[in-house]
Batch of 2 targets.
Target 1
Amino acid sequence: MTQLEALIALRDAVEAGTANAKQFQAVWPGYMGLTTLRAVKAREAYGGSLDAALALKDAVLPGWGWMAGDKGTVTVIPPERMYAETGLIGPTCRIADDPARAMLLAILAALIAQAGANEGR
């Protein structure tokens, strides 16, 4: 499974509410079966921790900002220089009752966009 495929599978499982530890580890594999901090933070964000979602964003999207909107909408915002080069505003995701999960989905959407762009090179 490619990184892009693992990201898409995890995004779909997070959206459906069926994500499991193996899916998080497929995206952020550890060494010799150990779980990475990124996988732990992603699972905590999936469980509702906004602090974990913010820590994950800082780890995997350094320099990116974020913005919360109405009814659980969360947008991750690329750094100014990236915006100037690409015009990319950043993914927006909505889960009304769980802003941490919405942030996780926005992070995954940004990583999918990056992996797709890198795969096309």
Target 2
Amino acid sequence: MLKKNENGDIWYIKKAGSAYVKATMPIGKAEGIIGTGKVKESDKFDGFPIAVNDEYFFPGELAEEKSSDNEDKTYDEPKDNGWKKHDKR
């Protein structure tokens, strides 16, 4: 969950060459970056624990990963339903 500032934007720290800059962006843009990037927890910048592609750092909390409903399911082979393959003679 991202932590918005008083204007409804979100602070971020971004790599800019060999330095880092701190600025704000709309929360929707931040969610888009997070949604399409590789997200991990970081302790590089105090108060900015969400790292995306090691380029963007956001304040907030990482959501716990939810396993997909299909991830742990196993499927049986299809049952023989009595259909026979046609012989082309």
